[in-house]
Structure formats: C-alpha cells, structure tokens
C-alpha cells in the first residue's frame, strides 16, 4: 500500500506534471483534492513552483492546486477511484464513554482527536477517520452516534481493536483489516482501566467480530505512546508504510515516554553493590558495559547518566568480589 500523496504524485507524473504550485507539503495537496476542497489544473503564468521532492524554486509550474477550474487535470473523483485499488482502512475512534470523563480529560480527548485528523491526512484523507459516540467541535470527520451504525452501513463485520489489555501483540500480519478501532479514552484519574476491553465485548454483543491486539515494545507496554494520535500514527506506519512495529513505535515515541522505558530497563540491570562491599546501607549500581545493551532505546547518551542519578544508581566500570 502507498500513502495517498504517493498515489497523487504517480497520477500527476503520468499526466506529464513535474512541477506544481503552491509550495507546501504534498500530502496537504493530495488530501485537499481527496476531500473535495481543490482540484489540480493546468498552470497559467505561475512562475514559482516545487518539484515532487517539495523543493521550491522560481520555475514555472506545470499545474496548480486551486479550488476549481473548467477542465481539471486531476479531480477528487479520479483520485478516489484510483485510491479504491488500495483499500485504505478506516480508523474509528469510539468515544462512547465520554460521559465518565472529567472536563480536563474531555479537553485532552478533543485535542488528541484534532491531532489524529492531522495524522490521518498525512497518510490518507480525513474521511477515513470516523468518530462515534460523541461529537466534538471542529472535528470535521464523519460522525456516527454508534460505531455499530457505521459498521452496518459499510458492511464491516470484522474489526481490529487496539486494546492495551489484549492477550496478543500486534504484528504486520494484522495490517489487512478494513477498519481499526481505537478507544476514545483519556484516563488522568486512573479509574478507566479495562474500558477498551469492555468496548470490545459490547461490539461483539452487536454481532461484530472483534480481534484485539496491543502494541508492545520488546514485550512491554512501557515506552509505547498512549495518546490516541500517537497510536493512530504507529498503526498507519505499520498498515500503509509496512514499517516494522518496533521501528514505528520508536519513531513516534516522545522523549518523556522513552525515559519511562529507560528507567524500567535501568532498574532491571542494576544490582546490589552494598552486599559486595559489605556496606550496612543499600546501594545499587550499574556496570558501564551493560549500558551498551540499552542502545536500542530511543534516548541520548546523557539520558542514561541523568536517569541513573535520579534513581540513585552508581555507574561502575567493574566490580571485583572482595
């Protein structure tokens, strides 16, 4: 599968277009056309343009993306007809539990949904993101009161639910579903554990075949981003780009989340130094050479030393038994 922007470039290249205006991200232009907000037209007297590597120069454009023209080179209908060949998936965010969120959590949920729209448009177009259960302002994507209504309308009988409590880890074998479901849940108070699993059971009770999967980073959920927009981006990098799951997670992971995983890994490789030195107070240490095994973590070298200091761990070259 290719991103919509790649398909957009492919179609224009076949029509002899090499340079386009305006100078902006290709994915923004492709999304605008797919969403019916613009068409691609032959350029007239446009002396500034960019190539398909997004390099802008004072060179005449072959085509431009504008709201309308009489004879478009590429229209929404033609682009979406070509897109049908790739069976782009739907991302449904189910917000049926909005009523148990605090005002602060709802604001966070709203922000994460807005960010998710931006993520989806980088890979596809916004109509491929569906929100159900609660309508948020400024979220200009398809809305359904119940997720089940969407599934019935689109004749979707089997979905993959991303659930942190699932028994099975997500893999590239799980990248051929027509629809992926993410729980619209923000838990700042710690009282919503298990809600995504409950969501899956409710969908199953309505006759939907639900396959539950979870993202793991080397066997652990610690270090996996939990924001809805981050989960969406990891998912689409796997589904559309066919990126390795670990690589996708690390590419989206924030420095803060990376340090959470670092702390856990440091604790696992630390050892009691006080027993070896016959001290009467607890001291933990880490062998410097053992840090080499943690280079897969998405952190800088100074993070190792900073986090060891915070944890009160000593870093030693080697320990010789006394």
Could you describe the 3D structure shown?
The chain is an alpha/beta fold and about 325 residues long. The longest helix has 21 residues, at about 105-125. It has helices at about 5-15, 25-35, 75-85, 105-125, 145-155, 195-205, 230-240, 245-250, 255-270, 275, 300-310, and strands at about 20, 40, 50, 55, 65, 90-95, 130, 145, 160, 180-185, 210-215, 270, 285, 315. It is built from eleven helices and 14 strands. A six-stranded parallel sheet has the order 8-7-6-10-9-11, sandwiched between helices. Helix 1 packs across helix 2 (about 25-35), helix 4 packs parallel to helix 7 (about 230-240) and helix 7 (about 230-240) runs antiparallel to helix 8 (about 245-250).
Instruction: Report the biggest beta sheet as strand number plus sense, adding barrel if it closes.
Output: 6 strands, parallel
* Series of secondary-structure elements, N-terminal to C-terminal: HEHEEEEHEHEEHEEHEHHHEHEHE
What is the terminal-to-terminal distance? Answer: 61 Å
What topology, given as strand order, has the largest sheet?
A: 8-7-6-10-9-11
């Amino acid at each position: 599968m290719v991103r919509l922007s790649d398909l957009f470039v492919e179609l224009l290249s076949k029509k002899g277009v090499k340079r386009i205006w305006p100078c902006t991200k290709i994915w923004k232009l492709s999304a605008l056309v797919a969403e019916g907000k613009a068409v691609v037209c032959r350029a007239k007297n446009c002396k500034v343009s960019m190539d398909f590597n997004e390099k802008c120069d004072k060179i005449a454009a072959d085509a431009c993306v504008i709201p309308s023209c009489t004879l478009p080179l590429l229209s929404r209908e033609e682009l979406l007809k070509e897109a049908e060949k790739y069976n782009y998936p739907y991302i449904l965010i189910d917000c049926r539990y909005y009523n148990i969120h605090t005002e602060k959590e709802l604001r966070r949920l709203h922000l994460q949904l807005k960010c998710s729209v931006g993520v989806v448009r980088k890979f596809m177009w916004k109509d491929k993101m569906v929100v159900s259960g609660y309508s948020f302002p400024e979220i200009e994507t398809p809305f359904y009161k119940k997720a089940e209504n969407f599934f019935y309308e689109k004749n979707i009988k089997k979905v993959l639910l991303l659930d942190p409590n699932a028994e099975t880890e997500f893999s590239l074998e799980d990248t051929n579903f027509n629809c992926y479901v993410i729980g619209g849940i923000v838990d700042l108070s710690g009282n919503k554990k298990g809600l995504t699993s409950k969501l899956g059971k409710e969908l199953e009770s309505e006759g939907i075949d639900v396959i539950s999967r979870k993202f793991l980073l080397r066997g652990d959920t610690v270090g996996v981003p939990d924001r809805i927009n981050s989960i969406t981006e990891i998912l689409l990098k796997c589904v559309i780009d066919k990126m390795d799951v670990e690589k996708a997670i690390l590419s989206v992971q924030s420095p803060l989340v990376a340090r959470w995983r670092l702390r856990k890994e440091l604790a696992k490789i630390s050892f009691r130094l006080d027993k070896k030195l016959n001290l009467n107070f607890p001291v933990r240490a880490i062998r410097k050479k053992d840090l080499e095994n943690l280079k897969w973590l998405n952190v800088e070298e100074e993070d190792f030393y900073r986090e060891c200091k915070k944890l009160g761990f000593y870093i030693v070259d080697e320990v010789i038994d006394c």
